Model the fold of this input.
Amino acid sequence: MARRAAAWEQGGDEYDYLFKIVLIGDSGVGKSNLLSRFTKNTFSLDSKSTIGVEFATRTIEVEGKTIKAQIWDTAGQERYRAITSAYYRGAVGALLVYDVTKGATFDNVKRWLKELRDHADSNIVIMLIGNKMDLKHLRSVAQEDAASFAEREGLSFIETSALDATNVDRAFQTVLGEIYRIISKKALSTDDSGAGAVKEGQSIQVSAGDSSSVSSRCCSF
Amino acid sequence: MDKKKGVDDTEPGPAPSRPVDRFGFIKTEHSNSPEGILKSRSTHEHEREERRIRKWRKMIGVGGSDWKHYVRRKPHVVKRRIRKGIPDCLRGLVWQLISGSRDLLLMNPGVYETLVIYETSSSELEIIRDISRTFPSHIFFQQRHGPGQRSLYNVLKAYSVYDRDVGYVQGMGFIAGLLLLYMSEEDAFWLIVALLKGAVHSPMEGLYQAGLPLVQQYLCQFEKLVTEHMPKLGQHFQDEMINPSMYASQWFITVFSYSFPFHLTLRVWDVFLYEGIKVVFQVGLALLRFCHDDLVNLPFEQLLHSLRNFPEEATDPDTLLPLAFSFKVSSRLVELDKEYRKKLEGPSASSSSKRFQPLKSRVMSRASSHVSSSPNVSKK
Ligand SMILES: Nc1nc2c(ncn2[C@@H]2O[C@H](COP(=O)(O)OP(=O)(O)OP(=O)(O)O)[C@@H](O)[C@H]2O)c(=O)[nH]1
Ligand SMILES: [Mg+2]
Done:
């Protein structure tokens, strides 16, 4: 898709909104591949585990507005939360990913939700994603179970496959759309641009500043 | 191990006909190793290399017998030669000599085997999950359940038992994998012990312990050094809200073995094992310096992209390393370390300089005693 490449290469930052999104979930569930599928349309069978955080962007249209997603992909291993949790701050959306073939990664979703509650903004939009749905014969988490769990917790939910690209765009689109609707409503009712992470127009500086929590955390001696 | 079949398993087995570079990585169109390095070497170059190897052999002695003596007499010659690169055919041996791992191995006969055979680790599943995600493009590690993957598993499992505080942390696999290309499982294991427990330099286990304390510390120190050595870039980073955890975590956690061209990784490791972690700071600074004039003009996103994708010219060891060594950081690092510690511990504690005395004997006896007493129980 030409638009994807163009937005990056020109650095042509023409967008109405910039949303910071985090990808979280256990190691190996496919976060990095979901991201590369969404931003570069690529997939790799033996991708390296993420060390720390990775970053990518893509711009899409939602209801006639151009929305740029600034996506932080985090390392899934628990030990890495020491580094990655700083990136939840200022995020307006989170994709919480589990692997439909590994029940344990679904069981851990609760812990990830707690992580978000502890470290992220309270009004963050969270979407639960059951990835690797292409592995039908290995499925161990029923779609209905995940769906009802999501409903109880007030999360949106979708199953995806980074491998064959099923629902990947839709997942991101849903989250971005949801955020957009919340933001635009808020803007109407309070005339305040809402969550700190979202600014209209040429706001890359400000938005990059959403990672300020990350930078200030470190060196202040 | 589940013997389930899935897409994960449908990759074609190792295809022996696929071309590999001189380190055993399968070549891609834009391969990790620039062709420049592979281009036919002139006979002149070849002879020079031969002479170099002869010199090294003399310095080492048979099986490393003369090494200690030589280092004691001429540490600067050794340092200079190591900075030029250890001959690849001697690398495995020399790495063991300079890291102190040889001594650990000799002091703990049979320990590794015990760890591998008799102990179980709570990290086993995590390790297995990552095995095929470690150097996936290297022929040694490609084959599922092949010797490479098995060795990698054994070393990581053994370490996770040996040091239960650390266990297994993603990133260690790259270090173990790198070592396994140059030495046996047991040798690789003791080299990791030597590094993390501090046989020669200060211990690095903090890179992997809960909270990743040493990663946090190094990133902090690195940020300071950037500002001090490249004020303009430091300011630009600050303006753009870029901090080192966004790009340099893996530099420290895997000591440049995660995503850099392999020939650079090796040269960094030569120096790292002899001179310590300081070289990671120096190489990091050199990368930034090399791209400085581009970096200072880039906005947040492109900046971040550039910091994770350095151009090939920047990662040529013969350019990058001399530039790296031009940064004098040793004494400043010690100061920054003290400051950081003081800051962490508050005004009360002050007797924490222990970590700065890489007392070989102290550390080794600690490492060995807790092994020989009970490999099951790590310290505490
Ligand atoms: N069959 C199938 N495999 C997938 C899918 N998504 C990812 N994988 C595989 O799962 C493994 C892990 O994928 P990653 O994207 O690296 O996982 P991650 O969540 O980023 O893992 P960490 O970085 O360690 O936290 C890789 O071998 C991928 O090829 C999918 O949709 N279907
Ligand atoms: Mg990942």
Q: What stands out?
A: Confidence is low (pLDDT under 50) at residues 1-11, 191-221 of chain A. Residues 16-203 of chain A form a domain with the Rossmann fold fold (CATH 3.40.50.300).
